[in-house]
Design a protein that fits this description.
- The chain is mostly helical and 110 residues long.
- Helices cover 78% and strands 0% of the residues.
- The chain has 6 helices and no strands.
Length: 110
């Protein structure tokens, strides 16, 4: 089973919407890098049950992102903040410091 590392990001954002078994199995598979057999032993279900739990969880995470788009929004905002930082870099240090403070306040609100 090939690992899609974007699932880790989706799990961080939408993981609480999964069943506990799905969330735990995906976490062990992606974050702890356990095999399906190791996860099966850990949560006391069959290897096939683990595989199905992970696949269903991945499917739900992808559907949540398609519907809600939180990861995409976060990535867009991060890219915009990076561009702003690049634009203010050549400015006078006092002005740059004030703009950086403003960006920091904005970032906290996001």
């Amino acid at each position: 089973m090939a690992k899609d590392l974007n699932i880790i990001i989706l799990l961080d954002i939408y993981g609480h919407l999964l069943t506990e078994k799905q969330r735990f199995a995906i976490d062990l598979y992606y974050n702890e890098d356990l095999s399906l057999a190791e996860i099966a032993e850990e949560i006391n279900i069959s290897r096939q049950g683990v595989r199905e739990s992970i696949k269903q969880g991945e499917k739900r995470l992808i559907e949540y992102e398609k519907t809600l788009g939180l990861v995409k929004r976060f990535q867009n905002i991060s890219a915009q903040l990076k561009k702003i930082n690049e634009l203010i870099e050549p400015l006078d240090s006092d002005i740059r410091e004030k703009i950086s403070e403003l960006l920091s306040i904005i970032s906290e609100e996001i």
